[in-house]
Amino acid sequence: MLRLSLGLAVAVSAMCVTSLNVPPAAASVDRRASTSDGDCARETMTNIVRKILDSMLAHDPYSLPLATVYKATENSHPAALGMMTLWRTVTKAGPPSLLAIDATQGTAFFALDISEGNDLTESVLRARVKVVDQEITELELFINRYRGDHGFSFSAAELPTNYAELMSPPANRTKASRATLRELSESLFAESSNFSVTVGNDCQFTEIGWRVVDTGTYGNGSSTPLGCAWPSDHPTDANARVGLVIDEELGIVVTSGIVPGKVLPYQNISAFIPDKMTSAQEAQVEYLEAMKAEGTMPLLSPIEATGDTLEVLQYYNDKLQAMQINVYLSGPNMTSPWL
Ligand SMILES: *[C@@H]1O[C@H](CO)[C@@H](O)[C@H](O)[C@H]1NC(C)=O
Ligand SMILES: *[C@@H]1O[C@H](CO)[C@@H](O)[C@H](O)[C@H]1NC(C)=O
Ligand SMILES: *[C@@H]1O[C@H](CO)[C@@H](O)[C@H](O)[C@H]1NC(C)=O
Ligand SMILES: *[C@@H]1O[C@H](CO)[C@@H](O)[C@H](O)[C@H]1NC(C)=O
Ligand SMILES: *[C@@H]1O[C@H](CO)[C@@H](O)[C@H](O)[C@H]1NC(C)=O
Fold first, then answer.
1. Protein residue whose Cα sits closest to atom 2 of ligand 4
2. How distant, in Å, are the alpha carbons of 66, 105, 135, 204, 339 from that of 132?
3. Residues enclosing ligand 2, CB less than 6 A?
Protein backbone atom coordinates (compact mmCIF):
# COMPACT_ATOMS: atom_id res chain seq x y z
CA MET A 1 0.00 0.00 0.00
CA LEU A 2 2.78 2.39 0.98
CA ARG A 3 4.76 1.54 -2.14
CA LEU A 4 1.74 2.11 -4.30
CA SER A 5 1.03 5.58 -2.96
CA LEU A 6 4.67 6.64 -3.11
CA GLY A 7 4.87 5.42 -6.70
CA LEU A 8 1.81 7.40 -7.58
CA ALA A 9 3.10 10.56 -5.92
CA VAL A 10 6.35 10.37 -7.91
CA ALA A 11 4.46 9.67 -11.12
CA VAL A 12 2.17 12.58 -10.51
CA SER A 13 4.83 15.23 -9.87
CA ALA A 14 6.85 14.09 -12.90
CA MET A 15 3.74 14.27 -15.03
CA CYS A 16 2.78 17.74 -13.84
CA VAL A 17 6.24 19.09 -14.70
CA THR A 18 6.31 17.55 -18.16
CA SER A 19 2.69 18.44 -18.84
CA LEU A 20 3.83 21.96 -19.76
CA ASN A 21 4.85 20.44 -23.08
CA VAL A 22 1.29 19.57 -23.98
CA PRO A 23 -0.71 21.65 -26.51
CA PRO A 24 -1.62 25.26 -25.49
CA ALA A 25 -5.26 24.74 -24.47
CA ALA A 26 -4.44 21.93 -22.06
CA ALA A 27 -1.31 23.70 -20.82
CA SER A 28 -3.18 26.77 -19.62
CA VAL A 29 -5.52 24.55 -17.62
CA ASP A 30 -2.44 22.80 -16.18
CA ARG A 31 -0.85 26.00 -14.89
CA ARG A 32 -4.03 27.12 -13.22
CA ALA A 33 -4.67 23.75 -11.56
CA SER A 34 -1.17 22.89 -10.34
CA THR A 35 -1.64 24.10 -6.81
CA SER A 36 -1.40 20.86 -4.82
CA ASP A 37 -0.68 17.18 -5.14
CA GLY A 38 -4.41 16.40 -5.29
CA ASP A 39 -4.95 18.86 -8.14
CA CYS A 40 -1.88 17.48 -9.84
CA ALA A 41 -3.17 13.91 -9.65
CA ARG A 42 -6.52 15.04 -11.07
CA GLU A 43 -4.71 16.80 -13.89
CA THR A 44 -2.63 13.69 -14.63
CA MET A 45 -5.72 11.48 -14.83
CA THR A 46 -7.55 14.06 -16.94
CA ASN A 47 -4.63 14.06 -19.39
CA ILE A 48 -4.57 10.24 -19.52
CA VAL A 49 -8.30 10.15 -20.30
CA ARG A 50 -7.81 12.70 -23.09
CA LYS A 51 -4.95 10.62 -24.48
CA ILE A 52 -7.16 7.53 -24.53
CA LEU A 53 -9.89 9.37 -26.45
CA ASP A 54 -7.40 11.00 -28.83
CA SER A 55 -5.79 7.63 -29.56
CA MET A 56 -9.22 6.25 -30.49
CA LEU A 57 -9.77 9.18 -32.87
CA ALA A 58 -6.33 8.53 -34.37
CA HIS A 59 -7.14 4.78 -34.59
CA ASP A 60 -3.79 4.30 -32.86
CA PRO A 61 -3.75 2.53 -29.47
CA TYR A 62 0.03 2.16 -29.75
CA SER A 63 0.59 5.84 -28.88
CA LEU A 64 -0.75 5.26 -25.35
CA PRO A 65 1.49 4.89 -22.30
CA LEU A 66 0.58 1.26 -21.65
CA ALA A 67 2.29 -0.76 -18.92
CA THR A 68 4.45 -3.68 -20.07
CA VAL A 69 1.60 -5.94 -19.01
CA TYR A 70 -1.87 -4.37 -18.92
CA LYS A 71 -5.39 -5.70 -18.40
CA ALA A 72 -8.11 -4.58 -20.80
CA THR A 73 -11.66 -5.48 -21.73
CA GLU A 74 -14.20 -4.07 -24.17
CA ASN A 75 -17.81 -4.96 -23.39
CA SER A 76 -16.57 -7.69 -21.01
CA HIS A 77 -14.35 -9.24 -23.70
CA PRO A 78 -10.62 -9.34 -22.95
CA ALA A 79 -8.56 -8.09 -25.92
CA ALA A 80 -5.36 -6.24 -26.75
CA LEU A 81 -6.24 -2.62 -27.52
CA GLY A 82 -5.16 -3.04 -31.14
CA MET A 83 -7.89 -5.65 -31.61
CA MET A 84 -10.71 -3.63 -30.07
CA THR A 85 -13.62 -2.12 -31.98
CA LEU A 86 -13.33 1.35 -30.44
CA TRP A 87 -9.92 2.07 -32.00
CA ARG A 88 -11.38 1.23 -35.43
CA THR A 89 -14.72 3.00 -35.30
CA VAL A 90 -14.65 6.16 -33.15
CA THR A 91 -14.72 9.32 -35.28
CA LYS A 92 -15.79 11.90 -32.68
CA ALA A 93 -15.12 12.05 -28.94
CA GLY A 94 -15.36 15.37 -27.10
CA PRO A 95 -14.45 15.98 -23.48
CA PRO A 96 -15.98 13.48 -21.04
CA SER A 97 -19.45 14.44 -19.78
CA LEU A 98 -18.65 12.63 -16.54
CA LEU A 99 -15.16 12.34 -15.11
CA ALA A 100 -14.61 10.94 -11.62
CA ILE A 101 -11.02 10.83 -10.39
CA ASP A 102 -9.52 8.86 -7.53
CA ALA A 103 -6.17 10.51 -6.78
CA THR A 104 -5.37 7.96 -4.06
CA GLN A 105 -5.74 4.85 -6.21
CA GLY A 106 -4.74 6.42 -9.54
CA THR A 107 -8.06 5.44 -11.10
CA ALA A 108 -10.75 7.29 -13.06
CA PHE A 109 -14.19 6.67 -14.51
CA PHE A 110 -15.37 8.61 -17.53
CA ALA A 111 -18.44 8.62 -19.75
CA LEU A 112 -19.44 10.49 -22.90
CA ASP A 113 -21.25 10.28 -26.20
CA ILE A 114 -19.13 9.20 -29.12
CA SER A 115 -19.78 9.06 -32.82
CA GLU A 116 -18.81 6.11 -34.96
CA GLY A 117 -19.33 7.94 -38.22
CA ASN A 118 -23.01 8.75 -38.01
CA ASP A 119 -23.67 11.67 -35.68
CA LEU A 120 -27.40 10.96 -35.77
CA THR A 121 -26.94 7.71 -33.85
CA GLU A 122 -24.37 8.44 -31.19
CA SER A 123 -23.19 5.70 -28.84
CA VAL A 124 -22.28 5.92 -25.17
CA LEU A 125 -18.72 5.17 -24.09
CA ARG A 126 -17.95 4.61 -20.43
CA ALA A 127 -14.72 3.38 -18.97
CA ARG A 128 -12.57 2.80 -15.94
CA VAL A 129 -8.82 3.33 -16.13
CA LYS A 130 -6.03 2.62 -13.65
CA VAL A 131 -2.61 4.22 -13.85
CA VAL A 132 0.58 3.19 -12.03
CA ASP A 133 3.84 5.11 -12.51
CA GLN A 134 2.30 7.10 -15.40
CA GLU A 135 1.39 3.91 -17.24
CA ILE A 136 -2.04 2.46 -17.92
CA THR A 137 -2.32 -0.90 -16.16
CA GLU A 138 -6.10 -1.42 -16.44
CA LEU A 139 -8.69 -0.29 -18.96
CA GLU A 140 -12.28 -1.48 -18.67
CA LEU A 141 -14.30 -0.15 -21.61
CA PHE A 142 -17.96 -0.38 -22.47
CA ILE A 143 -19.73 0.94 -25.52
CA ASN A 144 -23.52 0.87 -25.41
CA ARG A 145 -24.85 1.48 -28.90
CA TYR A 146 -28.54 1.13 -28.14
CA ARG A 147 -31.10 -0.26 -25.72
CA GLY A 148 -30.59 -3.96 -26.41
CA ASP A 149 -26.96 -3.78 -25.20
CA HIS A 150 -28.18 -3.44 -21.62
CA GLY A 151 -31.88 -4.14 -21.79
CA PHE A 152 -33.71 -0.91 -21.15
CA SER A 153 -33.23 2.88 -21.14
CA PHE A 154 -30.80 4.74 -23.41
CA SER A 155 -30.36 8.37 -24.35
CA ALA A 156 -27.23 9.74 -25.92
CA ALA A 157 -29.21 12.97 -26.49
CA GLU A 158 -30.02 13.53 -22.79
CA LEU A 159 -26.68 12.28 -21.46
CA PRO A 160 -24.61 15.53 -21.55
CA THR A 161 -27.26 17.56 -19.67
CA ASN A 162 -27.92 14.85 -17.11
CA TYR A 163 -24.27 14.12 -16.42
CA ALA A 164 -23.41 17.85 -16.17
CA GLU A 165 -25.46 17.97 -12.96
CA LEU A 166 -23.13 15.44 -11.33
CA MET A 167 -20.09 17.47 -12.36
CA SER A 168 -21.31 20.66 -10.66
CA PRO A 169 -22.60 19.79 -7.18
CA PRO A 170 -23.53 22.77 -4.94
CA ALA A 171 -20.44 24.56 -3.61
CA ASN A 172 -21.76 24.58 -0.04
CA ARG A 173 -22.28 20.80 0.10
CA THR A 174 -21.08 18.69 3.00
CA LYS A 175 -18.66 16.24 1.43
CA ALA A 176 -18.68 12.59 2.43
CA SER A 177 -15.45 11.07 3.70
CA ARG A 178 -13.58 8.44 1.70
CA ALA A 179 -14.59 5.86 4.33
CA THR A 180 -18.28 6.76 3.94
CA LEU A 181 -18.11 6.51 0.13
CA ARG A 182 -16.47 3.11 0.49
CA GLU A 183 -19.20 1.93 2.90
CA LEU A 184 -21.83 3.10 0.40
CA SER A 185 -20.08 1.10 -2.31
CA GLU A 186 -19.86 -1.98 -0.08
CA SER A 187 -23.55 -1.86 0.75
CA LEU A 188 -24.68 -1.57 -2.90
CA PHE A 189 -24.54 -5.28 -3.78
CA ALA A 190 -24.41 -6.62 -0.18
CA GLU A 191 -26.88 -9.16 1.24
CA SER A 192 -27.18 -6.94 4.31
CA SER A 193 -25.50 -3.79 5.49
CA ASN A 194 -25.48 -1.54 8.53
CA PHE A 195 -25.01 1.49 6.30
CA SER A 196 -28.41 3.10 5.98
CA VAL A 197 -28.84 5.21 2.88
CA THR A 198 -31.05 8.28 2.74
CA VAL A 199 -32.15 9.14 -0.79
CA GLY A 200 -32.02 12.86 -1.60
CA ASN A 201 -35.23 14.51 -2.87
CA ASP A 202 -33.68 15.42 -6.21
CA CYS A 203 -31.60 12.26 -6.59
CA GLN A 204 -31.03 11.76 -10.33
CA PHE A 205 -31.64 8.20 -11.58
CA THR A 206 -30.32 7.28 -15.02
CA GLU A 207 -29.63 4.20 -17.12
CA ILE A 208 -27.15 4.90 -19.95
CA GLY A 209 -27.77 8.63 -20.11
CA TRP A 210 -31.55 8.54 -19.76
CA ARG A 211 -33.68 9.62 -16.79
CA VAL A 212 -35.68 6.44 -16.60
CA VAL A 213 -39.33 6.65 -17.58
CA ASP A 214 -41.21 3.41 -16.99
CA THR A 215 -44.75 3.49 -18.28
CA GLY A 216 -45.40 -0.02 -16.98
CA THR A 217 -46.07 -3.41 -18.49
CA TYR A 218 -49.09 -2.18 -20.45
CA GLY A 219 -47.59 1.21 -21.34
CA ASN A 220 -50.38 3.10 -19.58
CA GLY A 221 -48.47 4.16 -16.41
CA SER A 222 -46.83 7.46 -15.45
CA SER A 223 -44.32 9.09 -17.81
CA THR A 224 -42.68 11.09 -14.99
CA PRO A 225 -39.00 10.10 -14.66
CA LEU A 226 -38.34 7.73 -11.77
CA GLY A 227 -36.39 8.94 -8.74
CA CYS A 228 -33.68 6.92 -7.01
CA ALA A 229 -34.54 4.01 -4.75
CA TRP A 230 -32.51 1.96 -2.30
CA PRO A 231 -34.69 -1.16 -2.02
CA SER A 232 -33.90 -4.11 0.24
CA ASP A 233 -34.54 -6.59 -2.60
CA HIS A 234 -31.72 -5.20 -4.77
CA PRO A 235 -29.40 -7.48 -6.76
CA THR A 236 -26.57 -8.87 -4.63
CA ASP A 237 -23.07 -10.01 -5.53
CA ALA A 238 -20.72 -11.42 -2.89
CA ASN A 239 -17.80 -10.78 -5.29
CA ALA A 240 -18.75 -7.19 -6.16
CA ARG A 241 -15.76 -4.96 -6.88
CA VAL A 242 -16.18 -2.08 -4.45
CA GLY A 243 -14.59 1.38 -4.34
CA LEU A 244 -13.13 1.10 -7.86
CA VAL A 245 -13.05 4.88 -8.17
CA ILE A 246 -13.66 7.07 -5.12
CA ASP A 247 -13.78 10.77 -6.01
CA GLU A 248 -13.92 12.57 -2.66
CA GLU A 249 -14.25 15.98 -4.33
CA LEU A 250 -17.40 15.13 -6.33
CA GLY A 251 -18.66 12.51 -3.86
CA ILE A 252 -18.73 9.84 -6.57
CA VAL A 253 -18.02 6.13 -6.08
CA VAL A 254 -17.99 3.42 -8.76
CA THR A 255 -18.89 -0.20 -7.99
CA SER A 256 -19.13 -3.27 -10.19
CA GLY A 257 -21.50 -6.17 -9.67
CA ILE A 258 -22.51 -9.13 -11.81
CA VAL A 259 -26.29 -9.40 -12.03
CA PRO A 260 -28.01 -12.57 -13.25
CA GLY A 261 -31.40 -12.00 -14.80
CA LYS A 262 -33.71 -12.49 -17.73
CA VAL A 263 -34.64 -10.50 -20.80
CA LEU A 264 -38.43 -10.52 -21.06
CA PRO A 265 -40.92 -9.00 -23.48
CA TYR A 266 -41.98 -5.55 -22.26
CA GLN A 267 -44.69 -3.59 -24.07
CA ASN A 268 -43.63 -4.06 -27.70
CA ILE A 269 -39.92 -4.18 -26.80
CA SER A 270 -38.00 -6.06 -24.08
CA ALA A 271 -36.42 -5.45 -20.68
CA PHE A 272 -33.61 -6.99 -18.64
CA ILE A 273 -34.97 -7.81 -15.19
CA PRO A 274 -32.59 -9.07 -12.45
CA ASP A 275 -33.52 -12.42 -10.90
CA LYS A 276 -33.72 -10.68 -7.50
CA MET A 277 -36.71 -8.69 -8.75
CA THR A 278 -39.01 -11.68 -8.75
CA SER A 279 -42.32 -9.83 -8.77
CA ALA A 280 -41.24 -7.67 -11.73
CA GLN A 281 -40.27 -10.84 -13.65
CA GLU A 282 -43.58 -12.50 -12.75
CA ALA A 283 -45.54 -9.49 -14.01
CA GLN A 284 -43.84 -9.81 -17.41
CA VAL A 285 -44.50 -13.55 -17.62
CA GLU A 286 -48.16 -12.81 -16.90
CA TYR A 287 -48.09 -10.11 -19.61
CA LEU A 288 -46.51 -12.56 -22.07
CA GLU A 289 -49.27 -15.11 -21.44
CA ALA A 290 -51.98 -12.46 -21.91
CA MET A 291 -50.42 -11.19 -25.16
CA LYS A 292 -49.83 -14.70 -26.48
CA ALA A 293 -53.54 -15.34 -26.03
CA GLU A 294 -54.32 -12.17 -28.02
CA GLY A 295 -51.78 -13.14 -30.69
CA THR A 296 -51.64 -9.61 -32.12
CA MET A 297 -47.92 -8.81 -31.93
CA PRO A 298 -44.55 -10.56 -32.03
CA LEU A 299 -42.96 -11.00 -28.59
CA LEU A 300 -39.40 -11.82 -27.57
CA SER A 301 -39.14 -15.19 -25.87
CA PRO A 302 -37.76 -14.87 -22.30
CA ILE A 303 -33.99 -15.49 -22.38
CA GLU A 304 -31.44 -15.71 -19.52
CA ALA A 305 -28.74 -13.02 -19.44
CA THR A 306 -26.09 -11.55 -17.14
CA GLY A 307 -25.61 -7.83 -16.54
CA ASP A 308 -22.00 -6.67 -16.09
CA THR A 309 -22.60 -3.51 -14.11
CA LEU A 310 -20.52 -0.41 -13.41
CA GLU A 311 -22.75 1.57 -11.12
CA VAL A 312 -22.03 5.22 -10.36
CA LEU A 313 -23.31 6.72 -7.12
CA GLN A 314 -23.02 10.33 -5.97
CA TYR A 315 -23.37 11.12 -2.28
CA TYR A 316 -23.10 14.39 -0.34
CA ASN A 317 -25.05 16.26 2.36
CA ASP A 318 -25.40 12.75 3.90
CA LYS A 319 -27.73 11.77 1.06
CA LEU A 320 -27.71 9.86 -2.18
CA GLN A 321 -27.76 12.46 -4.98
CA ALA A 322 -27.37 10.38 -8.14
CA MET A 323 -27.52 6.76 -9.21
CA GLN A 324 -26.46 5.53 -12.65
CA ILE A 325 -27.14 1.89 -13.41
CA ASN A 326 -24.78 1.17 -16.28
CA VAL A 327 -25.17 -2.37 -17.59
CA TYR A 328 -23.80 -4.41 -20.45
CA LEU A 329 -25.44 -7.77 -21.12
CA SER A 330 -23.80 -11.06 -21.93
CA GLY A 331 -25.08 -14.63 -21.88
CA PRO A 332 -26.24 -16.51 -18.79
CA ASN A 333 -23.95 -17.61 -15.96
CA MET A 334 -21.24 -15.14 -16.86
CA THR A 335 -18.77 -13.91 -14.28
CA SER A 336 -16.55 -10.83 -14.39
CA PRO A 337 -13.35 -10.98 -16.44
CA TRP A 338 -11.90 -8.72 -13.71
CA LEU A 339 -12.20 -11.26 -10.88
C1 LIG B 1 -26.57 25.69 0.25
O2 LIG B 1 -27.08 26.89 -0.25
C3 LIG B 1 -28.44 26.85 -0.63
C4 LIG B 1 -28.82 28.21 -1.21
O5 LIG B 1 -27.95 28.57 -2.21
C6 LIG B 1 -29.30 26.53 0.56
O7 LIG B 1 -30.65 26.42 0.16
C8 LIG B 1 -28.84 25.24 1.18
O9 LIG B 1 -29.55 24.99 2.37
C10 LIG B 1 -27.36 25.27 1.47
N11 LIG B 1 -26.97 23.93 1.89
C12 LIG B 1 -26.16 23.69 2.89
C13 LIG B 1 -25.85 22.25 3.18
O14 LIG B 1 -25.69 24.56 3.57
C1 LIG C 1 -23.91 -4.72 11.87
O2 LIG C 1 -23.87 -4.35 13.22
C3 LIG C 1 -23.94 -5.45 14.12
C4 LIG C 1 -24.04 -4.90 15.53
O5 LIG C 1 -23.26 -3.75 15.69
C6 LIG C 1 -22.70 -6.32 13.93
O7 LIG C 1 -22.74 -7.44 14.80
C8 LIG C 1 -22.67 -6.81 12.50
O9 LIG C 1 -21.49 -7.54 12.26
C10 LIG C 1 -22.73 -5.64 11.54
N11 LIG C 1 -22.89 -6.15 10.19
C12 LIG C 1 -22.19 -5.72 9.14
C13 LIG C 1 -22.52 -6.34 7.84
O14 LIG C 1 -21.34 -4.87 9.25
C1 LIG D 1 -53.22 -0.48 -17.63
O2 LIG D 1 -53.70 -1.51 -18.47
C3 LIG D 1 -53.87 -2.77 -17.81
C4 LIG D 1 -54.28 -3.80 -18.86
O5 LIG D 1 -55.28 -3.32 -19.71
C6 LIG D 1 -54.91 -2.61 -16.72
O7 LIG D 1 -55.08 -3.83 -16.04
C8 LIG D 1 -54.45 -1.53 -15.75
O9 LIG D 1 -55.43 -1.29 -14.78
C10 LIG D 1 -54.15 -0.24 -16.47
N11 LIG D 1 -53.53 0.70 -15.53
C12 LIG D 1 -53.83 1.99 -15.52
C13 LIG D 1 -53.08 2.83 -14.54
O14 LIG D 1 -54.68 2.47 -16.24
C1 LIG E 1 -43.98 0.32 -29.92
O2 LIG E 1 -45.03 1.09 -29.38
C3 LIG E 1 -44.80 2.49 -29.36
C4 LIG E 1 -45.98 3.13 -28.69
O5 LIG E 1 -46.23 2.55 -27.46
C6 LIG E 1 -44.64 3.00 -30.76
O7 LIG E 1 -44.31 4.36 -30.75
C8 LIG E 1 -43.54 2.23 -31.45
O9 LIG E 1 -43.47 2.58 -32.81
C10 LIG E 1 -43.77 0.73 -31.36
N11 LIG E 1 -42.62 0.03 -31.89
C12 LIG E 1 -42.74 -1.01 -32.70
C13 LIG E 1 -41.46 -1.61 -33.15
O14 LIG E 1 -43.82 -1.47 -33.01
C1 LIG F 1 -27.05 -20.78 -14.94
O2 LIG F 1 -28.02 -19.80 -14.69
C3 LIG F 1 -29.33 -20.30 -14.60
C4 LIG F 1 -30.24 -19.11 -14.48
O5 LIG F 1 -29.81 -18.21 -13.52
C6 LIG F 1 -29.43 -21.24 -13.41
O7 LIG F 1 -30.73 -21.76 -13.33
C8 LIG F 1 -28.42 -22.37 -13.60
O9 LIG F 1 -28.40 -23.17 -12.45
C10 LIG F 1 -27.04 -21.80 -13.83
N11 LIG F 1 -26.13 -22.88 -14.17
C12 LIG F 1 -24.96 -23.05 -13.58
C13 LIG F 1 -24.12 -24.19 -14.10
O14 LIG F 1 -24.56 -22.32 -12.69
1. 268
2. 10, 9, 5, 33, 19
3. 192-194
Is a pLDDT exceeding 80 seen at residue 295? yes
What stretches of the chain show up as alpha helix (H) in DSSP?
2-18, 24-33, 37-57, 86-89, 159-167, 178-188, 278-294
Residue nearest to atom 6 of ligand 4 (CA): 268
Q: Which ligand is nearest to the CA of 196?
A: 2
Question: What confidence score (pLDDT) does residue 217 get?
Answer: 86
- 279 Cβ contact partners less than 8 Å away, ≥ 6 residues apart: none
pTM, whole model, 2 decimals? 0.88
Ligand 2, atom 8: closest residue by C-alpha: 194
- Residue 223 Cβ < 6 Å to ligand 3: no
pLDDT tens digit sequence for 108-146: 999 999 999 998 999 999 999 999 999 999 999 999 999
For ligand 4, the distance from its centroid to the CA atom of residue 143, given in whole angstroms, is 25
Query: pLDDT tens for residues 187-240?
Result: 999 999 999 999 999 999 999 999 999 898 888 999 999 999 998 889 999 999
Average pLDDT of the chain, as a whole number: 90
Instruction: Note the pLDDT of residue 26.
Output: 43
For a pocket test of ligand 1, which of 168, 172, 201, 319 has the largest count of ligand atoms closer than 8 A to its C-beta? Answer: 172
Contact status, residue 75 vs residue 287, Cβ threshold 8 Å: no
The ligand with the least distance to the CA atom of 267 is 4
What domains does the chain contain, in order, with CATH numbers? Answer: 9-145 (3.10.450.50), 171-339 (no CATH)
